[in-house]
Amino acid sequence: TKQVYSFGPDGTEGRSDMRELLGGKGANLAEMASLGLPVPPGFTISTAVCAHHTETGGYPEGLTDEVREALAKVESRVGARFGDPKNPLLVSVRSGAPASMPGMMDTVLNLGLNDETVRGLADKAQDERFAYDSYRRFIQMFGDVVLGIDHSRFEEALELYKEEHGYNLDTELTADDWKALIEQFKQIVEDETGEPFPQDPEQQLWKAINAVFGSWMNQRAVTYRRLHNIPQNWGTAVNVQAMVFGNMGDDCATGVAFTRDPSTGDNEFYGEFLPNAQGEDVVAGIRTPQPLTTHAKQKNDSDLPALEETMPSVYRQLHDVRQKLESHYRDMQDIEFTVQRGTLYMLQTRTGKRTARAALTIAVDMVKDGIITESEAVERVSPASLDQLLHPTLDPEAEREVIARGLPASPGAAAGVAVFTADRAEELSQAGTDVILCRTETSPEDIHGMHAAKGIVTARGGMTSHAAVVARGMGRPCVAGAGQLRIDEQQRRMIVDGVTVKEGDTITIDGAAGEVIRGKVPTVKPELSGEFATFMGWADRLRELGVRTNAETPQDARTAVEFGAQGIGLCRTEHMFFESDRITAVREMILAESEEGRRGPLARIEPMQRQDFVDLFRIMAGFPVTIRLLDPPLHEFLPREDADMHEVAQAAGMTVDQVRARALKLTEANPMLGHRGCRLGITYPEIYEMQVRAIFNAAADVAEETGETVEPEIMIPLVAVAKELEILRGLVDRVASEVMKDRGTRIAYKVGTMIELPRAAMLADAIAKHADFFSFGTNDLTQTAFGISRDDAASFMPTYQSQGILSTDPFISLDQDGVGKLVEMGAREGRRSNPALSLGICGEHGGDPDSIGFCQGTELEYVSCSPYRVPIARLAAAQAAI
Ligand code: PEP
Ligand code: MG
Where is the PEP-utilising enzyme C-terminal domain (predicted)? Predict the structure, then answer.
């Protein structure tokens, strides 16, 4: 099979839909070349070769010949020869995986230079300084990436040289200076590796290819893939491409751009460039880049000239490329370009990463402009990213002590304590503290800290700097390039205009305004109208699954309704039992030794419980409300603190010692498998009777008051045996008819059960005979199917994931292979024996986009999730239905 694919002005072998084989970069370079855009010629070695290399350490047969042929094509296209001392071809060697992994893997530029070809380059460019600067950069990059020499070795040598010669800036060094440094750099290589710097370009090329393939398995790439759920076995492609130079003088430049604003989604050409600069200089954030358009220049109040002003004809060409790429890809693109002596070259295009707000705006705009359909728009926004839009933003009325301003690199507001290293960010956040990571600039080594932080601040770098790109991808608010900040990592502090912020001091950042603020600023609710509402309306029209919420407090229920919930799928009544007005009565009830003893406190709890339901029914008027009768082990309610013991003792007329003895007796060895769920209803029916009475009285109250009907759905937890449900259904029906008779009214209701034990799934047919509905309680079902405690999994789950034993945490995303089989079986058998049975899910998985796809496939009627996940579930359900 073919392993190497050429691209260039005449004859390109790849296409954009071959990204699995060619990686994103290779596939899109090929596509751009086919579109007739100015792409320097090159070739891509496929990801299949990487897989082979990772496995065996070697290369498949025939690869050297294919590479030689492809290189010959590049030579003839460019009109230069690899290794030719007079007219050398130079190439870049870059990784490019099927999924974008910004900055994660390695790149070598200027490859092909050696002691001879450097003179050829100097003659060709008529610029000796440029040639030797390129050569020393090559040795540096090659030394670092390919030979594994710490890059600080080279930097120290350079700094020392500058000091000795009284230079401040790299630009002050002459060709002779670079020549002298090159000798030093070569010596460093020899000292470190025991071998001279390789002079043979062919050898350089293969070593670089090796290194790029090897970089697929480096630690930060492995971590990035784990965080972004990218399979470890995909492999990267290697792109070898003729070099073009953005650093040959003032008519040269290099830059990156987005075809629309990646932060707001506005239909404006957005980008940055550096004149006379090479390769990664823009992304590295070392010099402050200049805007592309005069519009952006004015908007950001920049005094640096725009590309539109300094190179108008290049700008016009680039603008044409923008139009061409957007209409071809029908999506916002992120592009890289280089200008060599006034000529524009395109080095990359890919679908641009964007904030949730931008994703929404772009999708809605593109539908309005007839570029994409509503259902394409719905497919383009990642459900999880909506989370960014649902959270509070800074209160515009609140006082803000702004201590620094930077670029609005990623929107959202966050407050936390300032930390100055990624490791510290991770440490403190693991200890439960919200942190804001403040760095001079970030690099791929900071990823774990950025992930742990609530927000990110950098002192250097633009909108396309590493910090900005990664923060947007992660949905973290970010202020980039706040130039006034002086960050002192050693002393753990930063200083701005005389104000010192030490590690542990609280700051707030506003990523949409680009502000760093002292202290914690109050927040306000997000805006859910406009584009958001339009977009969610499309999702609602497309989806088939209903979306309910898990809520028991009026506030959660209200939030959920605002977010579009169509009822309550799980009201955990035990949460109500912990309220301060009744917890003592609850404890008294539990500690009582007889039914008689329980009835007293239950009678006191009942009116409070009734009021709880009245509140919920009012808020959920017209929607179904599923109320689960008491579920947790009684053990959980036992008093532990001395003060609580006293209080209960007093209320119950017992001594503290009696209370303590009774509590000890009720303590269970394995409470999650103990006296809980419907077992409580079987042993202490008076508890469930009280709850059912409260529910039906509340329903009658609200019906009388508002005329609106409510549909209570009474749910029995943790059923394993059909007989349990049969008995408890009898209890519900009996109490319901008593209340209805008493109130002289009729209330439509349902009785059902949770399917949260494997046995219940296996005997769903028998259980369904007594149920109007099933709700899959996949939290307990996962716990009991795996035999892994949901409360204790955190100590070993990360190891299981990093060793690839489990690809995702089964308590977050449904284990479709195993637990999913139980759900399928429960649904199928339940329906078979009771065709009228309705089915839903209320475990945490009800708000997880992948699991929602599974629910659609299993033809459940609804998913139920926590209020903040309701919009996510609406969108995920729509995507699952498309
Ligand atoms: C479940 O087990 O999935 C469930 C929803 O119930 P809880 O989380 O309250 O145990
Ligand atoms: Mg449960």
Answer: 529-880
pLDDT at residue 467 in the model: 86
pLDDT average, residue stretch 191-216? 95
pLDDT in tens, 43-69: 999 999 999 999 998 999 999 999 999
Chain center to CA of 792: 24
- Asked if residues 777 and 843 have their Cβ atoms less than 8 Å apart, the reply is yes
Condensed to tens digits (0 to 9), the pLDDT of residues 641-668 reads 888 899 999 988 899 999 999 999 988 9
Neighbouring residues of the ion ligand 2, judged by CB less than 5 Å: 756, 777, 780
Q: Which atom of ligand 1 is nearest to the CA of 631?
A: 9
Q: Mean pLDDT throughout 853-876?
A: 96
Q: Whole-angstrom Cα distance, residue 94 to residue 146?
A: 12
Extended strands (E) in 756-873: 773-776, 838-841, 862-865
- Residue ID of nearest Cα to ligand 1 atom 4: 777
Q: With beta carbons less than 8 A apart as the criterion, state whether 70 and 6 touch.
A: yes
Q: Whose CA is closest to 838, among 773, 770, 757?
A: 773
HSE value, Cβ hemisphere, 13 Å, CA-based, for 458: 31
What are the backbone angles phi and psi of residue 493, rounded to the nearest 5°? -160, 165
- Burial status of residue 689 (CB atoms within 10 A of its CB: 0-12, 13-18, 19 or more): buried
Above 80 in pLDDT, residue 372?
Answer: yes
Residue entry with tokens 């955990």: 572
pLDDT at residue 83 tops 90:
yes
Q: Which atom of ligand 1 is nearest to the CA of 717?
A: 6
How many Å apart are CA 834 and CA 847, to the nearest integer? 27
pLDDT of residue 286: 62
Q: Pairing state of beta strands 568-572 and 407-410?
A: unpaired
Of 639, 718, 638, 725, which Cα lies nearest the Cα of 673? Answer: 718
Distances (CA, A) of 727 to 640, 682, 722, 734, 738: 34, 8, 9, 11, 17
pLDDT at 287: 72
Pocket test for ligand 1, best of 572, 757, 783 (most atoms within 8 A of CB): 572
Convert the pLDDT of each residue in 601-615 to its tens digit.
Answer: 999 999 999 999 999
Instruction: State how far the Cα of 354 lies from the Cα of 385, in Å rounded to an integer.
Output: 10
User: CA 438 to CA 446: how far, in whole Å?
Assistant: 11
Q: Is the C-beta atom of 840 inside 6 A of ligand 1? A: no
| Distance of alpha carbon 93 from alpha carbon 827, whole angstroms | 53
Q: Which of 438, 478, 571, 842 is catalytic?
A: 842
Q: What is the 3-state secondary structure (H, E, C) of 171-230?
A: HHCCHHHHHHHHHHHHHHHHHHHCCCCCCCHHHHHHHHHHHHHHHCCCHHHHHHHHHCCC
Ligand 1 pocket check for 433: Cβ under 6 Å? no
Ligand 1 contact, 814 CB (< 6 A): no
d(CA 857, CA 61): 44
- Catalytic, 466? Answer yes
Neighbours of 621 (CB within 10 A): 16
Residue 850, annotated as binding a ligand: no
CB 44 within 8 A of CB 26: yes
Ligand 2 centre distance from Cα of residue 590 (Å):
20
330 CA to centre of own chain: 24
- CB distance 756 to ligand 1 below 6 Å: yes
C-alpha to C-alpha distances, 363 to 283, 356, 440, nearest whole angstrom: 27, 10, 34
Residue 779 annotated as part of some ligand binding site: yes
> Structural domains in the chain?
52-242 (1.20.80.30), 253-378 (3.30.470.20), 391-524 (3.50.30.10), 756-882 (3.20.20.60)
| 0.95 surpassed by complex ipTM | yes
Q: Is 865 an active-site residue?
A: no
Alpha-carbon distance of 846 to 833, in angstroms, equals 25
**Measured between alpha carbons, how far is 98 from 779 in angstroms, rounded to an integer?**
34
